[in-house]
Amino acid sequence: MPLTHLxxxxxxxxxxxxxxxxxxxxxxxxxxLLFTTLRFAFAAFxxxxxxxxxxxxxxxxxxxxxxHGVGLFGLMVVALRADISAGLASLxxxxxxxxxxxxxxxxVGERPRLLQGAALALAAAGMALIAGxxxxxxVTVLGLALVLGAAACWAGANMVAKSAGRVDMFGFMVWSxxxxxxxxxxxxxxxxGPALIVVSLTxxxxxxWAAVAWQSLGxxxxxxxxxxxxxxxxxxxxxxxxxxxxxxxxxxxxAALLGEAMPPWKLGATAxxxxxxxxxxxxxxxxxxxxxxxxxxxxx
Length: 300
Fold this sequence. Notes:
By secondary structure, this protein is mainly α. 75% of the residues lie in helices and 0% in strands.
């Protein structure tokens, strides 16, 4: 991979990793479901006016929008409000790789090999270490459950994206966001209430709107546009290992910008999960008959 392409890949994973801190900043002024609604609303509009709808069925776009927008980000942003730290969320969400493997086994009969089993065992040990420190400032039972649920939804979104085949992924993200935003808006009205929505929108500062813009333009459209551009020009086994840096950026940014503590147990859990992800990537590079995880380890 040329140096310029490598730098682009690192720019994308830096955006995705630091995005957890940006979400925390946005949640300081906007309730989580409203914040997520705005993200997907501005990822769709005005782009759908001049971006052609990809050649996939409407139900595929709707399924991806529901799983990716409502399931992945709806659950994760709710968790980030008060139930899990940004650094830990950036790590736990990477379990989507193993949820995707499980879905591939159940739905299309793909069979993981021994190396992927070892990878899953290491990641599970990391999750167990995190679970052993529930309610110690960084994570609650609810927070861990919500982010694991978000990871499962991400795995489902991976399978939907895989079923779509080779399509314009920028257009796919724009048009699938059309289905995410209305559902999130309805949930925000139902759970957060119109009064809180009006007050939040009228009192939001420029920093809050910048966080929304970062979510819509930087994280969703720039990140996935560049990532899929790289995947179209290089083998997936060359590009996807860069995604292992996402939780590294996430943990470092949370420690530096939010003051998140990094005690030994948290560093140990990080090492276990990252080693598991690295083994899974190695299995893919060796062309084993395990599933290939789209955009491995990247929060969409």
